[in-house]
Known about the structure:
Layout: H1 3-6, E1 9-11, H2 23-32, E2 37-40, H3 47-64, E3 67-71, H4 74-80, E4 84-87, H5 94-100, E5 106-111, H6 114-122, E6 127-131, H7 145-155, E7 160-163, H8 171-175, E8 181-184, H9 186-189, H10 194-204
Parallel strand pairs: 1-2, 1-8, 2-3, 3-4, 4-5, 5-6, 6-7, 7-8
Amino acid sequence: xxxxxxxxxxxxxxxxxxxxxxxxxxxxxxxxxxxxxxxxxxxxxxxxxxxxxxxxxxxxxxxxxxxxxxxxxxxxxxxxxxxxxxxxxxxxxxxxxxxxxxxxxxxxxxxxxxxxxxxxxxxxxxxxxxxxxxxxxxxxxxxxxxxxxxxxxxxxxxxxxxxxxxxxxxxxxxxxxxxxxxxxxxxxxxxxxxxxxxxxxxxxxxx
Length: 207
């Protein structure tokens, strides 16, 4: 899958927000609704559980033609056969991850500033996660707003996904900032019917 297309509808299942459904159940429902990428992000699982979950999610994504990313844990991503890794500014350095990863391995980086965006491109990032767009319960960082997202996206010629406070109500405004797509957590996985909600976003994004 082309990485620009993969960034269109990037969903991050969450055990708490999506409860009582498991990460696997959430992943299956998101993919059925048209998600183009899925990320495993969980700070509470031990290594064995995280690896098993990653392998199951990777298999589901491959069967659906979606990309699968693991947050922070390069070891889990590689062992699970993930398409890539997503790291933040305080995770392992991008240069080190790039040195250890296979050539075709995709690495995304969370950024909030134009300087960070340019640095990520210089160090080998394949895509950027920009946000938070608006204040959210899972993103304590200061919101960038539409203008801020637009500035950061323009700073590096890379696929960009906007995250944080994105909803059906503001999706078109977010896409007008120049990003390739959006990354969603509660806007999808907190809903009673995850598949139906994913389809609503997919329809607007013309997937």
